[in-house]
Batch of 3 targets.
Target 1
Amino acid sequence: MPQRISVRAPATSANLGCAFDCAALALNLYLDIHVTPRADKEVTVQYRGVNPERVPTDDSNLIVRTMRRTLEKWHKTKGFDLE
């Protein structure tokens, strides 16, 4: 059943300040996310990057919250492993 899905999200410079599209910054940073569906409703989060103590691994994690809402809208009640 498990089919791993991977997503690469690019970093953003949007929080550097208000430049009104006059300034640019090229970043070579990404967040690689791997999701494996589960047969039950359990959700697990494993983070192996920098400052792991700062990344929530419970339902307060923004990626977990987003995925749960999306699955609810699709009427899916499956859990997932997030790496």
Target 2
Amino acid sequence: MKKAYYGDFGGQFLPESAMFALNELEGAFLKFSKDKLFKKELNELLKTYVGRPTPLYFARNLSKKYQHEIYLKREDLNHTGAHKINNAIAQALLAKKMGKKKIIA
């Protein structure tokens, strides 16, 4: 993993004991983020399990009050009632492809 800095502040600072796992994760991410079959499987999980894409809802009363068309993206309709599952599903699928048997999220 290359040294990563983000402007004058912040960056990537980890204990040496975590570097092997992080390098392994980075390699898997770079590999599978370009894999069409991985993306297809992830999109299928997001569609069939999570319920994506979530619908847009026209907020009539808010639109009337503020005199603009206002739409709400209904992430609360996801299987777990929040947006967090989108990331968790992707992490779990990546871990599975890496041959991992356990995951801490």
Target 3
Amino acid sequence: MSESVPETTPAKVPVGPSLQLRRLAIDTYRENVAYLNRDCEVYRAEGFQALSKVEVRTNGRRILATLNVVDDPSLVGCGEVGLSQDAFAQLGVEDGHPAYVSQAEPPESIPALFRKLDGERLGQADFDAIIRDIAQHRYSKIELTAFVVASNRSELDREEVYFLTEAMVKTGRRLDWRQPVVVDKHCIGGIPGNRTSMLVVPIVAAHGLVFPKTSSRAITSPAGTADTMEVLARVELPFDRLTDIVRQHHGCLAWGGTADLSPADDVLISVERPLSIDSPGQMVASILSKKIAAGATHLVL
């Protein structure tokens, strides 16, 4: 099984005063968010602005996060940096551990994003750079929205869909079942009561075929397959747990986000859903990237 390009990467040599990490009980979904007090020495020295991208480094690791500014010292003190739940978990340290906060480097793929906004056709290297930056949380919500809207307005051609799919697969982990036939199915969705996966997967798996069914959460409807299955069972399965379940039972119904399969896809969906945007090119790339990452060899769409 191949490894992913992690969201956390080896950190640079720390510069400037350290702050104490503080875990905040705030769920920001797929977005890393950091919180600094407005009177913090680091905040003033670095010239930070709210919603700018910052780099948080500690224990040889780093994450990129969107900065929120706090005026209440009871939430985040002057000597602290607060992190949302998911962002804090990525660093693997305890509350109070020293950390360093600095300005994040601008995303390298911004020139490619601007070209897409102008309606230009992008190549494989362009999509690789954009999706890598998205998966590593280098894009702000504004930049994410710009990419989603640009890809919808200037529709992706067949080759661009292939490039986008390849880029999305590269940024995450891939399952390899060492089987000649690994089946999967996908319904585009948006139809009330269309929950065929919950019937098809157990029937096919019971007949011995490997069926690692991973699904997204809802995009343009109230509930996706993962949301519906979550009423009955846990769907947020880590990579190793998902693997064990499929090896034991031949199949599963899980949300792909926790297993780090095509992680950029879930970030893009977090923007597509409130905008009710689901362009054909992005939809095909989203589906295929998840199926390839799950190790499927045969797909019914």
